[in-house]
Amino acid sequence: MIEDQNIRPEENPDASSMAPQGSEDSSSGKAETPSEVEVVEEDFDWNIGNDYQLPYSEEEKQALLEKYTQTIRTFSEGDVVKGRILGLTKSHAIVDINYKSNGLVPLSEFDDMPDLKPGDEVDVYIERLEDPKGRLILSRRKARLIKAWEMIKRAYETGEIIRGKIISKTKGGLIVDVGGLETFLPGSQIDVKPIIDYDSYVGKTMEFKVVKINEAIFNAVVSHKAIIESELAEQREKIIRELEIGQVLEGTVKNITDFGAFLDLGGVDGLLYKTDISWVRISHPSEVLELNQKLNVVVLDYDEEKKRISLGLKQLQPHPWDLLPEDYKEGKIVKGKVVKIEDYGAFVEVQPGVEGLIHLSEVSWSNKPINAREYFQKGQEVEAKIIAINREDRRMSLSIKQLTEDPWNKVDEKYPVGSVHKGKVINLTPYNVIVELEEGIIGSVHVNDLSWIKRFHHPSEYVNVGDEMDVIVLEIDKERRKLILGHKQLTENPWDTFEEVFAEGTSHEATILRMERNGAVVQLPYGVEGFVPQNHLRKEDKSYPEEGETIPVKVIEFNRENRRIILSHLRYWEDKKKEELGEAAEQERKEVEKVLKQQKKETTILGELGVFEDIKKKLVEEEPASTESEQVEAKKEESKEVKEEKEMPEDSVEVKAPESSDSGEVDDLKKIEGIGPKISQILQEAGIRTYRDLANTDPEKIREILLQAGSRYKMHDPTTWPEQAALAAEGKWEELKALQEQLKGGRKK
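The structure assignment produced for this chain is given below.
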């Protein structure tokens, strides 16, 4: 380190002459103002300071300047520089980096240099050029890390090999110190063979390749296995070049997996697949092989590009099919063990290494579906018949069902049409119940053939799998090997009786079973189900019933062939209301008849009293006497009206040809559907006496006449009355009858 040269003023005899002019005036306290000082630039002597230069020549000055410049270096914080050990204390090392001051570095950062001594050169990192106390702060540890990271990056880019010391074990691998920087060595990268004991590697110094770096966190992954593999690559290529298919080699089992085993062939690995280990089917290679076991194998194939060698062990043994006895022919019954199960059947080993397939179609004579994985079990002993064998293709087909006779050969004799049997329900489909009568004989019962009186959406509503059921054979389908069965046919068809019980127009109590989109399904007496359309469910109070509620209904349609009964609650209470109105009209008619009898009685009493004679005399005096024929005619007319009121019901729908009227001025309006005696009387009082009068009257006018007669006539609908009256006026009675059949209470249905 170059020492500073200090020149003190007293050593320079001419130092006083270097003081600025006017210093005396300054010392005396007098100072000239700028305006008083006149400075003339042209008169200033610029060489005035050169009178006291050191006595060196120009050559000496230049040499000294160059020597001084060499001693000056520019430093920055964060630089890694070379330093020299000047001395050692108990805890620090004094390091000179050729700066104006020396730095201190803790001795703990020199653990890798146990023989550290003054004069040694080391790399240090400048943390601070000057701390608050003016000290130079240096770090050898950081310098080592930076240098080590640069070396690791270079090794990663160039692929060169670096050395490092394994210092500890961690999860999944080891920690390696490379030039002061800790790197990670995965357990799988220690060696080409699996390593279990990691502790045995701690403290060793080994060579590594950098396989991965992370510059963001200054982390690196190294591998020793990569070095071994690169060394073995040349040896592997040499061995592969000399390989030939069919060549027999000796190998050592180094690893066993689920799919096979890896063998060391002397620096090169080969794969022995599970299917090439033994002619006998095995579940896992460990059943035959062991680790470190030596055995001879044959080369089956190799790929120079992918460096893969496929080996075989069973190929060194004779094929089991070549040893199969000659008596293994079609028709022979054999025993074997189930070794493999597939969706389509099971493979049975009949001899070591010789297998036959039992297809699902050869399990049972029946057509019921069979799940191979449920029917067979691995290791199960089975007996079967050989139905096909091909020694060239090494294939064998077996059958279990052909051990017994086909039951369909005698199905006509055992299950004739009309015979009754008991079977077991083995399956349910959306529309059928599958019933097994015996092994191989299966039939189906359609959902509509389960019951005469109930309809089922699904067979499960009536029967369950495993139940026994009585059935009758309806049809035999030999092509499909299936019987068409029935269950309801075991009993008499009750719909012959229901046709009388539930005749159209009859009323019954019904319980709502369930509500559907367009109506309700109800239960009638005897367990029969019927249907009430949505527009026929409305109650008299305009509400609708709910499930479980019992309501009165009237049958409006009975279809024996389709076993369908259509019901109406609306029709029930409407008809009942009409009956009540009819009873009221009948009561009114009786009251009128009673009044007429009372009047007749009073008339008789008045005659007996002579009052009638007096009245008669007054009438004769006031009016001209009527002829005898007119009086007789009036009595006949009066008698006729009373008789018609007694005999004709209010809502008669029977159409008959009108009887001839003596007067011809009044028609029987009760022949019109919807008009009873009382309404006929109301219309006649309003001036509507004939069919022609009624045909020419607007329905709204008729409605007004009825409303004026009373609110109870509000329910009558006169819309079709003029149309009916027009037909009656023209004498078209057959057309009138046809029209009235389409009406209900005068309204169109």
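Interim note for the steering committee: Residues 1-41, 622-664 have pLDDT under 50 and may be disordered. The chain has 15 helices and 32 strands.
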